[in-house]
Amino acid sequence: MREIYRILDANFNRAREALRVIEDCGRFVLNDPAITAMAKHFRSDLKVLLDALPHAELVVSRDTPGDLGRDITSKTEPAREDIEDVATAACKRLTEALRTVEEYTKIIAPVKALELERMRYDAYTLEQRLCTRFLVTQRFRNVKLYAMLSSGLCKSGSLKAVARAVIAGGADAIQLREKDIEDDAFLAYAAELRELADQTDRLLVINDRADIAAIVGADGLHLGQHDLPITEARRLLRPGAFIGRSCHSVQEARQAINEGADYVALGPMFRTDTKNRQPVGPAVLEEIHETYETVPLPIVAVGGINADNVREVLRRGAKCVAVCSAINAADDPQAAAEAIRRQMDSEQ
Prior knowledge:
Blueprint: H1 2-29, H2 33-51, H3 55-60, H4 83-108, H5 110-141, E1 145-149, H6 159-168, E2 173-176, H7 183-200, E3 203-207, H8 210-216, E4 220-223, H9 230-236, E5 242-247, H10 250-259, E6 263-266, H11 283-291, E7 299-302, H12 310-315, E8 320-323, H13 325-328, H14 333-347
């Protein structure tokens, strides 16, 4: 029985250590409250289960100096490429440890083994969430020109025609931003843009409407300050979908980051007819980058940006700009997008 206790003790320790690595990644790297809470509650559940077993016997059976595995190391174990590699390795270690605990617990406490099986499946969900968050961040990090489209502003043709034109002009992502149309029309536009985004390998974001984003399988959802909480909206979206939040100050950006946003849209940079708000100005970009220099979260400059002033926001630290009126209301949306993209490519 001592051998079984040694196995259980070692693997309970592995599982707890792995969960701490995952929790710290969710808390300090991804700023994801869901991952942080899942890992924290997981550790608590694991402690409750461990306390129900002969805990003292497990600890007494420990023989660290005599453990043959201490001196056996694989070639890949001492090295990690990046934070994602660290977190992914911790997830694998967690599920492997739980499987071992589950199997050997069947000998001494079969009923508890059923709880461990459930926990192991929960661990797979936690791993999926963590890997998805890294994937989402990587996908959106490649976006430079983010075009926001509204049928009421389109001057040169249909919404789909304008969308096709701005994609040809260099937009990496398109957002459907409709404030005053019926649901059926909104859904029809969203379906059209979903098809176009698939054809052109671009990201589709839906503004405000989590339900429509879910229906068409949008790549992302953009929320205003007073829209749904991010954690609740995420429940509706497909796995891998990202969520952005509109912010107008460093304080609001901090809140969005802590809430688990995948990106923050900060503005308005300049005066714009689409936002009834005083501009915050490009200087706020420097402030936000100084505050969150080590946080892997894209900051999108938005509001009144066009080919004439885009360089100013880039020089203040913006890597991505969201553009609405300068593209929608242009006589030639493709040329307007090309002009902005040209300035961006020459500056970055």
